[in-house]
Amino acid sequence: MKSVIRLCASALLTAALSLSASGISAAADLLERIKEKAEIVIGTEARYPPFEFVENGKVVGYNIDLFDAVMQGLPEVKVSRFDLPFQGLLPGLQALKFDAIVTSVAVNKKRYETYRLSLPVADATLTFVKRKGDDTLNKAEDLSGRIVGSQAGSAQLKGAENLSAELEASGKAPMKSIQTYLDYNEAYADLAAGRIDAVVNALPNLLYLQAQRGDVFETVPATFGPASYFSWAFRQDDDSRPLADFIDERLRTLAADGTIETLQKKWFGSTTALPTDTLPEPQS
């Protein structure tokens, strides 16, 4: 009888310890769970050079190199990437499909309020690209009455819409139309074919496009709109905060040791100083 009692007590103790351990695991935040499973799952859009794109069957780019440098702070953790059109990334983050979005998320007021955004990873100030030799488009005001393209659901599209409204408010004709595309490669193809007059995007992307296809495209260096940045995105909750804080601290370290400047030179051909204290609140 005593043997049976001892067996029952042992079983109860084992069950209690198991429940306790389960409770600890359940209570662990996202960063701790990532460490436990030795894997982080991120969403990205590999159609946005020079930040992320496919080359010889492999996803490469500025954000890829930068995130690899960030993850040197967690060398035992494997990075698993989901490559999706940009329009599906932020909804996927909210639906818990990824731990974070590591792609070029242009910061705007709505995103700033909805998501926990990282420190800036790159400049996102807007300009536009035109066909090489088009001397009629030299500044933002010249887009009055023109057909302009940008990516559906993007902050760059919103910037183009704002510029069109500003042109109209100043007494000029707004843009004739703004065409939207799933990704920028489609917009560039239409620009090259003469179906649209210009494509609005962030300056680093368009400088890279010109460097790769300068025989077809020419980037207008005069930017428009407020200063803007690209960030990475996390859910805005207590569970995700330690991961976001860890990545921000790694970005500060990489800014201080010159890694970010080196990667900017590699992928953009120039450098831009980025805030390292906090992410500036966007104006719109």
From TrEMBL:
Q: Does NAD show up as a keyword for this record?
A: no
Specify the signal sequence span. 1-27
UniProt keyword annotations, A-Z = Signal
Q: What is an example of a Pfam family matching this protein? A: SBP_bac_3
Source species? Aquamicrobium terrae
Protein's UniProt name? Polar amino acid transport system substrate-binding protein
Q: Which PANTHER family match?
A: ARGININE-BINDING EXTRACELLULAR PROTEIN ARTP, MEMBRANE-BOUND LYTIC MUREIN TRANSGLYCOSYLASE F
Q: Which domain of life is it from?
A: Bacteria
Starting at the broadest rank, the lineage of the source organism is: Bacteria, Pseudomonadati, Pseudomonadota, Alphaproteobacteria, Hyphomicrobiales
What range(s) does the Solute-binding protein family 3/N-terminal domain occupy? Answer: 39-271
